[in-house]
């Protein structure tokens, strides 16, 4: 009896447990173990990219003839003005590309001669060939308070007398003909005849000097080598001297005579006017490179034949006149004025505003008033 009752109780208990639990849940397998990441660390600070420092503004001395930097030792020093032969037979000239300003003007017979003005002689090598003076070149040298280097000069007192004016005007003249500055030996003095030029160009086109020799003369000079107190150049410069409102002047043609015409072609890549003469690039024989300048000036003025036996001419650099100023491929009309003999050139636009030159070298063409200058 007891066994039946126990069996019934067990059956009942199983039924109750079965009703309460329902179906047995499926067992989800454990997920696979994933690769473990390395412990997290702080990311390194990025290395800063170096930035180029802006160039410090130049505060040193500037060349008063170019507006470009120059050595401290040249501040207040008188420049040198060197007469340069420009005949076809005298080409190539030497060292003219290193002049800060080149002046070109007519001589007798329609030929031209040049005068290179050098404020600093750093790096200036051989210069030449050196030729004789005329009175209007003396005026240009005096305008810069320059030491004038030449080999000879005109000497007809009734007409064109450079030698007489050297004395009368107090020009500091280093003369290779009537002075103690010429030697027959190579580099024996301030000036000498270069053997190679003497052979290839002839004796008259062979007189040369160097920047080093000029400095030697300055170091032992009995003449004044510094500007007098109060001397100020009246040239102003800007990084870009392109004249506002200027007309196109990609090519400038400057006829001096039937013998000589100059041509200036603007190179936008360099900002320079590249020079040609006698139908060829105007090259410096020392470097073989074509000469280029930042500024081109044309001065129109009176020219008069003196009637002497040599056909010398007078060039009027006293008073006022008209001309042109070109820079950056543009040109404007200008007015010029100068007092004789030692006054500086003053250049203004037609409204009287002083011309501002581009930083760099300048070429001044002094031509007759009827010269037909062309611009393209």
Automatic annotation (TrEMBL):
<feature type="region of interest" description="Disordered">
    <location>
        <begin position="25"/>
        <end position="66"/>
    </location>
</feature>
<dbReference type="InterPro" id="IPR021416">
    <property type="entry name" value="DUF3048_N"/>
</dbReference>
<protein>
    <submittedName>
        <fullName>DUF3048 domain-containing protein</fullName>
    </submittedName>
</protein>
<feature type="compositionally biased region" description="Pro residues">
    <location>
        <begin position="29"/>
        <end position="38"/>
    </location>
</feature>
<dbReference type="Pfam" id="PF11258">
    <property type="entry name" value="DUF3048"/>
</dbReference>
<keyword id="KW-0732">Signal</keyword>
<dbReference type="Pfam" id="PF17479">
    <property type="entry name" value="DUF3048_C"/>
</dbReference>
<feature type="signal peptide">
    <location>
        <begin position="1"/>
        <end position="25"/>
    </location>
</feature>
<feature type="domain" description="DUF3048">
    <location>
        <begin position="252"/>
        <end position="364"/>
    </location>
</feature>
<feature type="domain" description="DUF3048">
    <location>
        <begin position="65"/>
        <end position="223"/>
    </location>
</feature>
<dbReference type="InterPro" id="IPR023158">
    <property type="entry name" value="YerB-like_sf"/>
</dbReference>
<dbReference type="InterPro" id="IPR035328">
    <property type="entry name" value="DUF3048_C"/>
</dbReference>
